[in-house]
Amino acid sequence: GILAALGKGDDGALTSLLQMFEAEGFVIRAAHELAPDLLPAAGVLTHRQPAAGDVEDAARADAALEAIGVADIGQACVVRLGQVIAVETSYGTDWMLESLDRRPDRSGGIFAKAPKPGQDIRVDLPTIGPETATRVAEAGLGGIVIEAGGVMVLDREETVKTADDSGTFLWVRQP
């Protein structure tokens, strides 16, 4: 039952709960199926474009996100100059970004977010919004990189405006 599901980590617990609901005849729909505009098309949504170093950091983030996703640890990380400097854990994105406040190298790097490999995207699809854009800027990062088709953007207009106003970028990147 439910107690056994909770011992399987986030993905295991959610999968077990979905199976319980589906066994009772419920049809599970993803938020983006009902509101497809939550998943922006690939491209840079802000005025600022990623620099060459940001592109390299995004590639490094792919490998890190794959590893932490397979281990069911988290859906986000921060990479600066090719080094993973923060990883999202059960404490969440906000805690991870706030932890960067004490870093000695206060500028540069990217925040990257993507679904875990094999994740059921009907539930727990990664999400960003205006608050994420604010926290990324406060952490001194250059921008946000999200996986196209895999990360929802809440209040897209305000999220892009927040990033633009802070001089950061928002790149929806093809996996």
Commentary on this structure:
With 175 residues, this protein is an alpha/beta fold. It has one domain: Cytidine Deaminase, domain 2, CATH 3.40.140.80. Helices cover 40% and strands 17% of the residues. It has seven helices and eight strands; from the N terminus they run H-H-H-E-H-E-E-H-E-E-H-E-E-H-E. Helix 5 (93-99) packs parallel to helix 6 and helix 6 packs parallel to helix 7 (156-166).
Determine the structural class based on helices, strands and strand pairing: alpha/beta
Name given to the CATH architecture: 3-Layer(aba) Sandwich
Which geometry do the CA atoms define? globular
CATH class: Alpha Beta
Order of helices and strands: HHHEHEEHEEHEEHE
Overall mean pLDDT stands at 89
| Order of the strands making up the biggest sheet | 1-8-6-4-2-3
What do we call the CATH topology?
Cytidine Deaminase, domain 2
Strand % is: 15-25%
Keywords:
Cytidine Deaminase, domain 2; 8 strands
Describe the structure concisely.
By secondary structure, the protein is of the alpha/beta class.
Can you lay out the helices and strands and say which pair or pack?
Elements: H1 2-6, H2 9-23, H3 31-34, E1 43-44, H4 52-70, E2 76-80, E3 83-87, H5 93-99, E4 110-113, E5 127-128, H6 130-138, E6 143-147, E7 152-153, H7 156-166, E8 169-173
